[in-house]
Amino acid sequence: MRFLERIFFVDIIKGLLLTLKYTYSKTYTEQYPTEKCKVAERYRGAPRLNNDPETGETLCIACDLCAQICPEDLIVVGSQRDPESRKKVLTTYTFDTSRCLFCGLCQEVCPTNAIELTQDFELATYERKSMLWDRERLEKGWDRIEGKNYR
Amino acid sequence: MEFLLGYVLIPTVKIVALVLILSGVVAYLTLLERKLIAYIQVRLGPMRVGPHGLLQPIADGLKFILKEDIIPRRADALLFTIAPAISLVPAFVVFAVVPFGPPDMFRGTIETVLGWFFDAATVQAVADNTVATGGFIADFNIGLLFVLAVSSVGILGIILGGWASNSKYPLLGALRSAAQMVSYEVALGFAVIGVLLVSGSLSLVQIVQQQEAAGVWYVFVQPVAFVLFFICGLAETNRLPFDLPEAETELVGGFHTEYSGFRFSLYFIAEYANMITVSALAVTLFWGGWLRPFPNVEWLWFLDLVPALGWFVLKVFLFLYLFIWIRGTLPRFRFDQLMRYGWKVFLPVAMANVIVTAAVLLVV
């Protein structure tokens, strides 16, 4: 039996049929720069400082909780007390992505959902100092400032 | 005038057209191979140059031309420079005797076109000349011997290239190539003899005509010979699973390690042209050449709507697909396995096939 199988190339034909099956199956390749990869639903990527969608004002109440919980101490919240309303108002907010380990504790602790780790994963830059994200970049997002173009 | 037209001008046109078409097919065969291997491996393959990578062969060709042509300092410069050409030329020359259409293939075209310029007698003389009208460059009565002889010369290019590189890996590749070609050419020859015994002719055109007359493709008469021919053809063209002369993983590219730029591309073209040649030969010898399936079954007349050239190209393409498909499926043989199969399996089987065929023909 084994002899007959070898004469008629049974194993080779089986192998050929297997590769034929894969030839016409769906490919896994993602055309990355032109077509973004799908990341997991709960993926933690680039940080973003959310604004109130109605008023456009920042949601951050400058409570400094994120800066305190951050294991890397990379968030610096600058605030000023408004002399009239006696409220703390956010002035500066820096987020050092070069040190961030994307643990997500800042967004966990934020009482107003102001700081959020988005699904954007393209954090590469040309120089080290642009890894330090200021308030403007955190609010507007990376690509609106730099203008990403791939090719 | 008839002589000039029938034996010089029209054949020249055919030769130029064939060389150009063959080069184009070779270029796109590389793309087909890359795409197909990619799909087998659940990838996409080249996608960037042109839609779905369709212009990739042109980009590759440009790259080869623009790259530096390096000749290693201690290499044998003369041999090193001519070796790729030795490999390339026979690959194309073999196609001179491969028929891709019946002997009166271009008769209608020639009669029409020449009718515009010449008188009826001249046109008639040229149209009766199969050298001009045939779907082949030349129809030798020793066509098959010519193929075997010329394709053996191509192997010299590999051996010389490996030798002249003055480098260890190419030399090993050349040695392997020499051993492999010697082993497998014998079995290949015996496989072909089976067909010769049945057809009684060495002319490739007549072999196809015999298949038409017999009403059956020789693959059904000589199945063993066909399988042997195909396997040995894989070995002769250095295709996987027999690509030991250029085994990338062990020999860093084998005989063409030291080659770069255009000379490397000559080897590359030669390999793919050889693939086409072996496919075309397999089609001609075993699969009825330009004949449609079931050439003598009347009610399948609608198959004749596809021209003879169409059937030939389709069959050759299927073989090329099979070549690439096998490359995507099988791993490379070890060298001792290669030798064992060549001498202890394929050669005895091929000889037995010849003897059995001869005996059967003697009795029948």
What structural keywords apply?
heterodimer, A: 151 residues, alpha+beta, three-stranded antiparallel sheet, two-stranded antiparallel sheet, rod-shaped, B: globular
Short recap of the structure:
The complex is a heterodimer of chains A (151) and B (364). With 151 residues, chain A is α+β, with helices and mostly antiparallel strands.
Task: Characterise the protein shown here.
The complex is a heterodimer of chains A (151) and B (364). With 151 residues, chain A is of the alpha+beta class. Helices cover 27% and strands 16% of the residues of chain A. Chain A is built from 6 helices and 5 strands. In chain A, the strands form 2 sheets. Chain A has a 3-stranded antiparallel sheet with strand order 2-3-5. A two-stranded antiparallel sheet of chain A has the order 1-4. In chain A, a hairpin with a 6-residue loop joins strand 2 (75-81) and strand 3. Chain A is rod-shaped and about 95 Å long. Chain A starts with a helix and ends in a 5-residue tail after the last helix. The mean pLDDT of chain A is 83. Chain B is mainly alpha-helical and 364 residues long. Chain B has helices spanning 2-40, 56-66, 77-93, 107-117, 120-127, 130-133, 143-164, 168-199, 204-214, 218-221, 223-236, 248-251, 261-286, 308-329, 335-363. In chain B, helix 2 (56-66) packs across helix 13 (261-286). The N and C termini of chain B lie far apart (49 Å). In chain B, 45% of the residues are buried.
